[in-house]
Specification:
This protein has a ten-stranded mixed beta sheet, covered by helices on one side. Strands 3, 4, 21, 28, 31, 32, 33 and 34 form an eight-stranded antiparallel beta sheet that branches. Strands 9, 10, 11, 14, 15, 18 and 19 form a seven-stranded mixed beta sheet that branches. By secondary structure, the protein is of the alpha+beta class. Strand 22 and strand 23 (about 555) form a beta hairpin. It is built from 20 helices and 35 strands.
Length: about 750
Amino acid sequence: MPRRSLASSIAFLSLVAAHGLAAQEPARYDTEIRWTSYGIPHVKAANWGSLGYGFAYATATDAVCTIAREVMMVKGELSKFLGRADGNHESDIFHRALLDAATVRRFNASQSAKSTRFAVGYVAGYNRYLRDHRSELPADCRGADWVQAMTADDVTRLTIGVGIRYGVGRFQKEMANAAPPGELRTGSIVTDFTLPEGVGSNAVAMGKAVTASGRGLLLGNPHYPWQGSSRFHMIHTTIPGELDVMGAGLYSTNRVAIGFNKDVAWSHTVSTALRSTLYALELKPDDATQYRYGDGWRRMTRVSVSVPAKSANGAVNNETRTVFLSHYGPVVASEQLPWTAARAYAVRDVNLANDQSAITYDMLSRARSVDEVEAAISQQGVAFTNTLAADRAGTAFYADISVVPNVDAAMIDKCRVKPPGIPASVMVLNGADPACEWKTDATSKVAGAMPPAAMPRIRRDDVVSNANDSYWLSTPAAPLEGFSPIIGAERTARSLRTRAGLAFIAEALKGGAKATPQTLEDMLFTHRNFGAELLLDDVLRLCAGPSEPVVLSGTTVDIGASCRALAAWNRRETVDSRGGHVWREFWRQAARVPGLYRVPFDPTDAANTPRGLAVEQPGVREGLRRALALAQQRLAQFNVPLDAPLGSIQYDMRSGERIPIPGGEGGTGMWSVITTELKPTGYTPIIHGNSYIQVVGWTADGAVEARGILTYSQSDDPASAHSGDLTRQYSKGGLVPLPFYEKDILADKNLRTLRLRQ
């Protein structure tokens, strides 16, 4: 067996010792990877260690540079190899302080022997790939000193790092630069409290009452970034007699996150639940590093973090930074969260204690029914998403059983404080009152997390869906109510994207029609803009009336051109559609017009309200005219023709080829989501949106049938044959068969096989 590095050997021995595995247990791996069309790997092994080995090798084949960069980040070594700029230094301080040796040890000790074998095998498989291909790595990282062998502790850091990205992970600069009054280390830091770009998804699960087969049917449609470590990667993993699951996981993770087996299919959508809370700390008058807790004072812990950083001359020197921790979590500081003599803020993230992801997804991958899906996610390893599922028996299921602070409505009423400058979407609790600590529940598997029994879920024989609004309207027939506000809002208006999905579902099932897999595929690939279907007629009526040109900062704009473009638009965003981008730019402004809707939101008719633009109101009328003028002016400024076919201005690049991309922004009413940004040079290549798409159902006799696509293709290496093949297919429209059964794998005309032993 090839010699391991010292660090890798130490990590391996510590893991096997922690789980009572014999040190002499063969660390030999035997796995078979079979690639079918579009570079989809099917990893087959006899045990969990060998499965991890093949999983890592197959993923590294398409994403080795991205994985190496992510490992560098979670180890806190960006500054060491890339220098301090671009937020690298703050990222290193953050990761070294929170993903320290003690945190990693606790996580490792909590894992099962099976998970440990898989993780150690994953490390060996990744390192084998580096040995096999070091001289021929993609151009992005070929010869880079930061591409290094992985250790088992790195896998742990990667796992925790994904879980905390939407909690404390959003406060890296604030944590790294927090200091008592008079010791501010950097210039002004402005906290961005908005959810990062690239977060979203649609999912629909249908049951036997509405499907033609009388069995379950599921659409999974996550909206995720088209670049970086949050790209999905399709994979099929098999241990004969124990595991057989296909789907996709992120480049930087090591399980199938969204997928299917012969009995169930599931998907995730990012939920509205919070993963962290801020605590307002009342500081001691003569010491700004002590804070009140009940009748006494607690002293902040000073943690010295050493970060190796490359200087301009290439020399690497260790730099030390002090990070301040409260018992809640790290102290953070920014313009909106100032550390004054009287107050400071700390953030507590529930996913820092989440060590349940492996057991959750292993159970989910082997689930045989919706009951077992519910049991799997009740292990509480789902960090920040809803789960929707359908099974072969014909049950549809929705749940937001994710990792959420155990804070109920009564605690929020008693403990919430509302400092100026902090949006209502951010929860700040009173850190001086011990009664404001998150509750402890013996049935929670994650410390501080809300118990699964207190979280929303529903089973149906008809339909459930989610498009990133809260659990409340997962089915209009039976709204879910009575849950903690920390999970989401009830009886509030739904987004245009949520309403689009509900409308398309109702339309497809109208008159008792039964759904097929093609029904769900068509719902997405017709690329209808529901916002325009609902509201454009009102805009065109405004256009048809008498009006004067709009004056914007002294410039006169004749909105007739944008009116004509919208009138000619087919209200879809296919690559051939013309005018949808005018609606996109118009709606950015129009959505903010006060008193916009003629019919206000009605919680008893949430799927259909609000609706109608109140164009008869002078203020609304002028606001909409101004929005049209701004859209027209902006497009003209950046030389984007109003009647351009969408595919000529919305595209992604593959080896110098511009591939037209259909879809549009969810905020404008699109269910099929693609997001770009308008720059002086025109629209950028795709930022995020439709990514891994799967439609999974069962035939009447119970055989699973699955179609899917990865919109940006499997590999992020431009030189790979699989960096754009699926992207071209997505541009044309429709999904491709996913070869799940052995006969389908063997029949694939592009089948190639690699047997790996170590």
